[in-house]
Write the structure tokens for this entry.
Amino acid sequence: MNVSLTPELEKLVNEKVASGLYTSASEVVRDGLRLLRERDEIKQSRLRELRRDLSAGARQIRQGNYKEYSSGDELIDDIQSRGEKRIDSRRKGKRS
């Protein structure tokens, strides 16, 4: 396989090899491809999670389990509050 790189990417590869972190350009490219695969897997996982959450939300609405808001600002405040709680709980879980 023959791969063409932009001058900027070629410089980056050469810098990584020169730093001693990698022994060859091929090793740099393989690591980059592994990271790309990992990123794609994370995206797919997040997409599955989003679809699951949307499905659960639609099911709750059909069952009459929802909250009505008096204004858009009230809705935004509730979303932000719940989002912050979710982020906090994830951070706490990572510390454990």
Remarks:
- The chain is about 80% helix and 0% strand.
- The chain has a mean pLDDT of 95.
- Residues 33 and 39 are 10 Å apart (CA to CA).
